[in-house]
């Protein structure tokens, strides 16, 4: 379990701001888990085939399947291009504008909030899939990990001011809608393709002293994941 | 009050908050994918992207003017320079160049060597008519319309179609003077 948090935490920490891991597995077999997982990650960085060698879901989603499923052109083979270092940045407001258009477009396509959240989640899922591949090639290092004390099949990642929620205001008639659904989708995408099927959702948690509620991403791992961990642990 | 000097694109970009470009690229990719699934016709998707870009541009120009402190541009040439050097740098972190001015100074080309929207992207055979970055043309059109310039923005070169750079042609159609909503004598 630690392994997947390792990736996650580093991704979130580096890309979506500070987060706090509030629950996690506290188990002596964890270190082995990290090692096993880390080895698997390094394996994938040294091969051109972007496979994650792990029990469970083995989807080889290479970058060439980024858009549609077309034939590869001979002269602009995107796989041959060198992988960028990942340091390039764009302005936050640029991203906020883009995200707001994404939400607005989806609003016109659906009739209710649940459907809207679902669509955002699906979009995020696609993002998550590809983020995982990129991470596997970057060997990102997490700055710190926090240990929790409970052991359940539910885990939470919480953040005070989630990036996507910063510039979005929710009109009263939308009630419980949460743009964190997009981030939940990213998380689900990463987990699913790493072999950890889970149900991920985003929730608002009101906190004393803060004007806006904190957003929490709730991850509920599927039965088979827990059984697998129990077997390996 | 002494006018504040305009800030360079690099200075502004260093001072705004930034996010990882990959997140941006992938989010844009997810959006285009959604559009392709919903609309199916490539032309429709192009139009929708342009419309979305227009909506963004209309709001983006406020932030641009607030952060960059540029003074009123004297002519269209200056406008194009400002868009390429300050605008693109501020929002996308890349610098564009301006060239191919026509005789009257109403049409120019903005050239982008580097485009964060298209990292890792390739167009399949089924989407050959797609202008993947059409959102950018909408953004420019929307932003300029808010400062009283009606323009037409088209793509001349597109790296996803095999060219060596991205080239946008910006054509000034007319300058529309600002209209006041209230009559003076009321």
Automatic annotation (TrEMBL), chain A:
Gene3D superfamilies named in the record: Trafficking protein particle complex subunit 3 (3.30.1380.20)
Q: Which InterPro entries match?
A: NO_sig/Golgi_transp_ligand-bd (IPR024096), TRAPP-I_su5 (IPR016696), TRAPP_component (IPR007194)
Protein name per UniProt: Trafficking protein particle complex subunit
UniProt similarity note:
Belongs to the TRAPP small subunits family. BET3 subfamily.
Single GO cellular component term? TRAPPII protein complex
| A biological-process GO annotation | endoplasmic reticulum to Golgi vesicle-mediated transport
Instruction: Spell out the subcellular localization from the entry.
Output: Endoplasmic reticulum; Golgi apparatus
Protein's organism: Olea europaea subsp. europaea
The UniProt keywords, alphabetically, are: Endoplasmic reticulum, ER-Golgi transport, Golgi apparatus, Transport
Q: Which Pfam families match?
A: TRAPP (PF04051)
The cross-references to PANTHER family, in alphabetical order and at most eight, read: 41-2 PROTEIN ANTIGEN-RELATED (PTHR20902), TRAFFICKING PROTEIN PARTICLE COMPLEX SUBUNIT 5 (PTHR20902:SF0)
UniProtKB/TrEMBL annotation, chain B:
UniProtKB keywords: Endoplasmic reticulum, ER-Golgi transport, Golgi apparatus, Transport
One Pfam annotation reads: TRAPP
Organism domain of life: Eukaryota
On whether Endoplasmic reticulum is a keyword of this UniProt record, the answer is: yes
An example GO CC term for this entry is: endoplasmic reticulum
Assembly and interaction partners:
Homodimer.
According to UniProt, the name of this protein is Trafficking protein particle complex subunit
Q: Which species?
A: Olea europaea subsp. europaea
């Amino acid at each position: 379990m630690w392994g997947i948090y390792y990736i996650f935490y580093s991704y979130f920490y580096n890309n979506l701001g500070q987060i706090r891991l509030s629950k996690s597995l506290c188990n002596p077999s964890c270190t082995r888990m990290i090692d096993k997982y880390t080895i698997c990650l390094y394996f994938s960085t040294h091969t051109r085939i972007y496979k994650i060698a792990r029990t469970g879901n083995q989807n080889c989603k290479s970058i060439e399947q980024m858009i549609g499923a077309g034939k590869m052109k001979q002269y602009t083979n995107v796989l041959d291009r060198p992988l960028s270092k990942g340091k390039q940045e764009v302005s936050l407001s640029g991203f906020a504008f883009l995200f707001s258009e994404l939400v607005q477009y989806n609003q016109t396509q659906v009739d209710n909030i649940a459907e809207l959240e679902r669509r955002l989640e699906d979009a995020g899922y696609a993002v998550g899939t590809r983020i995982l591949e990129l991470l596997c090639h970057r060997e990102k290092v997490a700055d710190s990990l926090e240990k929790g004390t409970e052991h359940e099949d539910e885990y939470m990642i919480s953040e005070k001011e989630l990036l996507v929620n910063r510039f979005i205001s929710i009109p009263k008639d939308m009630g419980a809608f949460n743009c964190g659904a997009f981030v939940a989708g990213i998380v689900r995408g990463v987990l699913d393709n790493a072999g950890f099927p889970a149900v991920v959702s985003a929730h608002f948690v009101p906190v004393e002293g803060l004007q806006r509620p904190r957003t929490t991403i709730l991850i509920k791992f599927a039965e088979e994941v827990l059984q697998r961990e129990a077997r390996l642990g | 009050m002494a006018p504040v000097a305009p800030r360079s694109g690099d200075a502004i970009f260093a001072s705004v908050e930034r996010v990882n470009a990959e997140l941006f690229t992938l989010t844009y990719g997810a959006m285009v994918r959604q559009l392709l699934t919903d609309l199916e016709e490539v032309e429709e998707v192009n139009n929708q992207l342009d419309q979305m870009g227009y909506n963004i541009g209309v709001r983006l120009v406020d932030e641009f003017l607030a952060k960059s402190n540029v003074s009123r541009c004297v002519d269209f040439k200056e406008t194009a320079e400002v868009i390429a050097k300050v605008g693109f740098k501020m929002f996308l972190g890349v610098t564009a160049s301006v060239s191919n001015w026509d005789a009257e100074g109403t049409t120019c080309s903005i050239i982008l060597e580097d485009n964060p929207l298209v990292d890792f992207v390739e167009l399949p055979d089924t989407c050959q008519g797609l202008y993947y970055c059409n959102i950018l043309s909408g953004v420019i059109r929307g932003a300029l319309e808010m400062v009283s310039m009606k323009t037409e923005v088209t793509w001349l070169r597109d790296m996803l179609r095999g060219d060596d750079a991205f080239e946008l042609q910006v054509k000034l159609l007319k300058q529309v003077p600002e209209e006041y909503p209230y009559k003076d004598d009321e």
